[in-house]
């Protein structure tokens, strides 16, 4: 996604790392770049606001539920695959494989 305007930091880079920004998981220098980008790019600011709202809603609705360790590990593994640019399996990695049914 791009708003079509030139920016010091590309819209695609900002959106690719949006959750790192939302979760404060990036260096302050990068956070400052992203903050500056949001100040001058309304489409990215809108996307940021939407994702921030979703994150708050999920926390409010599900924030007290314990996540099984194996599910968390599978989800984190999938996130790592996506971040590294590797091909992500099309099947649902959060479900246990099912045994073939006998006829």
TrEMBL record:
Organism: Streptomyces echinatus
Top-rank taxon, per record: Bacteria
Domain Putative zinc-finger: 11-44
NCBIfam families noted in UniProt: antisig_RsrA
Name of the featured protein: Anti-sigma factor (TIGR02949 family)
Region (Disordered): 84-103
């Amino acid at each position: 996604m791009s708003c079509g305007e030139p920016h010091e930091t590309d819209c695609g880079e900002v959106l690719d790392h949006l959750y790192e920004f939302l979760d404060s998981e990036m260096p302050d220098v990068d956070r400052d770049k992203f903050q500056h980008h949001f100040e001058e790019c309304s489409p990215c600011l809108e996307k940021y606001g939407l994702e921030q709202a979703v994150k708050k809603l999920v926390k409010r609705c599900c924030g007290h539920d314990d996540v099984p360790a194996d599910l968390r590990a599978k989800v984190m593994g999938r996130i790592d695959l996506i971040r590294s640019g590797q091909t992500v399996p099309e099947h649902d990695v959060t479900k246990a494989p099912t045994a073939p049914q006998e006829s």
